[in-house]
Amino acid sequence: MKIASVVSAVLSSLAPSVFAQDIYQEPGSGIPAVDYHYGMELDVHRVLSRTDTSQRTGVVPVTLVYEDSQGELHKIRFLEWGSHTSAS
User: Fold this and answer.
1) How far is CA 36 from CA 25, 61, 64, 86, in A?
2) DSSP secondary structure string for all residues of 46-76
3) Which of 6, 48, 73, 75 is the most buried (most CB within 10 A)?
4) C-alpha span between 51 and 61 (Å, rounded)
5) Sign of the torsion formed by the C-alpha atoms of 85, 9, 26 and 78
6) Distance between CA atoms of 56 and 37, rounded to whole angstroms?
7) pLDDT digit string, tens, across residues 59-79
């Protein structure tokens, strides 16, 4: 589980680039998602979309669409802790 948190933190730091995308186009809609595994080498040049986990609690699936340094699109799936905390 630790690697998913590390990957999530690194990829989240790239999140501001998500806001630069065209909101009417769903990036990566035509490519299959690949499950992330420990040690997988990622060449992330720009994050295009990421599952919002701000209102989810516990371990949740995340899908990330990114562009590599060659301009190719990729989609990966991994697990991370949702960042929502209950107000009790």
Assistant:
1) 24, 11, 10, 29
2) EEEEE---TT--SEEEEEEEEE-TTS-EEEE
3) 48
4) 8
5) negative
6) 23
7) 999 999 999 999 999 999 999
